Amino acid sequence: MEALPADPSLRDIRAWPFEEAAKVADRASVKAKGMALFETGYGPSGLPHIGTFGEVARTTWVRRAFERLTGLPSRLVAFSDDMDALRKVPDNVPNPELLRANLGKPVSRIPDPFGTHESYGAHNNARLRTFLEAFGFEFEFASSTDYYSSGRFDEALLRMLAVHEEVRQVILPTLGPDRRATYSPFLPIHPRTGLVMQVPMEEVRPDAGTVVWRDPETGERYETPVTGGHVKAQWKADWALRWYALGVDYEMSGKDLIDSVKLSSQICRVLGGEPPVGFTYELFLDAQGQKISKSKGNGLTIEEWLTYAPPESLSLFMYQQPGRAKRLHFDVIPRATDEYLANVEKLRVAADPANPAWHIHGGALPNGAGSPITFTLLLNLAVAANAETPEMLWGYLRRHAPEATPEASPMLAVLVERASAYYRDMVKPTKRFRPATQPEREALLHLAQLLRENQARIEALPAAERPGAIQDLVYDAGRREPFLQPGKDPSRPGVSRAWFAAIYQVLLGQEEGPRFGGFVALYGIPETVALIEGTLERGADAA
After folding, report:
1. Which residue has the higher pLDDT, 2 or 266?
2. Bridge partners, 74 (sequence order)
3. Which of 299, 425, 456, 523 has the fewest CB atoms within 10 Å, measured from its CB?
4. Please, what sign has the CA dihedral across residues 146, 130, 67, 239?
5. Strand pairing partners for 214?
6. Is 271 in contact with 244 (CB distance < 8 Å)?
7. How far is CA 40 from the centre of its chain?
8. Cβ count near 320 (within 10 Å)
9. Any idea what DSSP says for residue 365?
């Protein structure tokens, strides 16, 4: 990407990516290098997930903010810890017995249960790269196995060997008595079994660049070089080693790793490096407010989100308040989608770097961004029309919003497809209609009468004015007891929320929705009149 001129005024923008970027820009190592290195870490014992997307997206936004702020280049390294030992067999892989027979070995040295790559680690690394590339992220992929085996970590490993006891003293206070007696930052790879060995070091030989340890099963003693991929560093030491060796300037991590960040930072300083600028993001919660767990399966997968909404909506969800815990479940999808669309329209009016859409789209809206119709409005149309397929929704759009076409709005085409799927799978099974009370029945019938009487006048208006004119009739129909409430104009009372709740609960089987005038303009006045009268007639028959 072509370098942009520095814009120091962006420090004053109240947006968290610029706040983070300013911290990176002020870092001494960045000033000395004239560039910044951003990193995201990935454990390849499982497949990429929605948290992977969130971490890379958020890091990318900080990276782009840094480049805009400073005019300096940057790199993003997606680092796969594929030399880590496989400790348990994931639930979502074929041939689990193949993995079970190789537990304890580095994932890069375990056969691929999918049968497509030279190792299980290579398979998951390929999935990671494909995953990130599909979202257009710019990154450099790095393999822990490659870095250890090629010698790129050798200098750092020898440095850690030289300060072996100092590194131990950072970790020992956090361990129980048994682990404290055996802890070493080095995990030798057994030369015979290939297992990652968690054993005490009988000797540390910095001059020779080796460690001496004993196989607890056989009692055989080994002297192993710490270089060339013969050992792997333990988790917290490994993180510090990576920061030190690569000169990482920025890395995010979840709230569950706060203590690990502190310890790894201490180790990095022991090695003689400066730990990166960090940002702690909160973890996701499920619909009941419980922490999301892959083993429990109580979360929302990225495939599920993208079945029902465009990726930009997921980006918006990830952008907002990363330092606060958020519930990640199906109900948040429509709101996140419409908030994204609203931010696109604001950005179209003013290029505001505080706008989330500015960051999602790298400072410039692409062609076809935005939609003339909100996701929630499409969902309400699907509810009223029982539209389980995109073709059914397009039928209504062609009649009542002929200017809204896939060619004119590519995003609308995506939203129509996703909205019909969301309605079919998420809304239709949970619709809960209630019968109208007598006052609600009278008000709804009055609304149908007003719509019928004013149809010709409203349809003669320009399309942009019809929703407002219909909304006025919605208010007029609700100006009666028990929906009246005091307004600014004593001669024209206001209408309570109970009236609008009644409209959505009785007619559409849901608690709330967008402005009803916009829905009627899209659904059609005759169709809405038929919806009202048919619903009330069915309710009367049921009573």
Report:
1. 266
2. 36
3. 456
4. negative
5. 221
6. yes
7. 14
8. 13
9. P
Q: Where are the alpha helices (DSSP H) in 151-257?
A: 154-162, 164-171, 177-182, 235-246
Q: Which two tokens stand for residue 54?
A: 């969130």
Q: Cα–Cα distance between 283 and 51 in angstroms, integer?
A: 9
Residue with tokens 């309400």: 380
**Which of 390, 414, 305, 308 lies closest to 57 in space, CA to CA?**
305
Tell me if residue 457 falls in helix, strand or coil.
helix
Query: What DSSP string describes 382-449?
Result: HHHHT--SHHHHHHHHHHH-TT--TTT-HHHHHHHHHHHHHIIIIIGGG----PPPHHHHHHHHHHHH
Token readout for 206 is 């910095």
Question: Tokens representing 274?
Answer: 């400066």
How far is residue 374 from each of residues 345, 395, 475, 513, 517, measured CA to CA in Å? 11, 17, 22, 11, 13
Q: How far is residue 494's CA from residue 447's CA, in Å, rounded to a whole number?
A: 16
What is the per-residue pLDDT across 123-175, written as a single tens digit (0 to 9) for each?
999 999 999 999 999 999 999 999 999 999 999 999 999 999 999 999 999 99
Judge whether 517 and 469 are in contact, CB under 8 Å: yes
Chain center to CA of 161: 39
DSSP string, 105-169: SBGGGS--TTSSSSSHHHHHHHHHHHHHHHTT---EEEEHHHHHHHTTTHHHHHHHHHTHHHHHH
Tell me the pTM: 0.89
Question: Are the C-beta atoms of residues 183 and 233 closer than 8 Å to each other?
Answer: no
Residue 4 tokens read as 């942009």
Convert the pLDDT of each residue in 69-126 to its tens digit: 999 999 999 999 999 999 999 887 899 999 999 999 999 999 999 999 999 999 999 9
What CA–CA distance (Å, rounded) separates 454 from 477? 13
Q: How far apart are CA 183 and CA 414, in angstroms?
A: 54
* Closest alpha carbon to 158 in 275, 85, 260, 245: 245
pLDDT at 283: 87
Is 296 labelled a binding residue?
A: no
Cross-strand bridge partners of residue 254: 281
What lies within 8 Å, CB to CB, of 151 at 6+ separation is: 227, 228
* Residues ≥6 apart with Cβ < 8 Å to 478: 443, 447, 495, 496, 499, 500
Closest by CA to 337, choosing from 310, 372, 371, is 310
**Measured CA distances, 182 to 97, 163, 185, 410, 509 (Å):** 31, 17, 10, 60, 63
Query: What residues contact residue 177 under an 8 Å CB cut-off, 6+ apart?
Result: none
276 close to 304: Cβ distance less than 8 angstroms: no
For residue 321, which amino acid is it?
Q
Phi and psi at residue 502, to the nearest 5°: -60, -40
First to last CA, the chain: 67
> In whole angstroms, what is the distance from residue 478 CA to residue 172 CA?
70
Q: State both tokens at 462.
A: 């320009």
Strands 140-143 and 74-80: parallel
Neighbours of 440 (CB within 10 A): 23
Of 453, 466, 482, which is closest to residue 516 (Cα–Cα)?
Answer: 466
Residue 315's nearest CA partner among 42, 55, 79 is 55
